[in-house]
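seq:
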Amino acid sequence: MTNPDELADPIFSDEPQYAGDTFPSTTMNFTTDISFGPVTLSGLGELVDGGHMVNAVAYLNTIRNVWPGCSEAQAMDEAGQRDQLTALERARCIRAFNSDDVFVED
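struct:
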């Protein structure tokens, strides 16, 4: 999108855009076991950092008008106040402009 902060309809570029790597740049796993006689307590942890993905849950729930992050913008649109929404808010929250491109997140 070329105008995310303007109070206007979103303008999408026809050129492919690089949003970032899809795979994490860092992945770490750690595990530990503690034994007390016949009982063993195990723990496993994982850290993943970096990478980008489409937040499909937000996108699909926005289309259904049940995503909390868009409830205010959708209410403003229904009240005829679309002119007070930024292009990014319109692209994310208003069905006429919805695109999964704006739901790419770290």
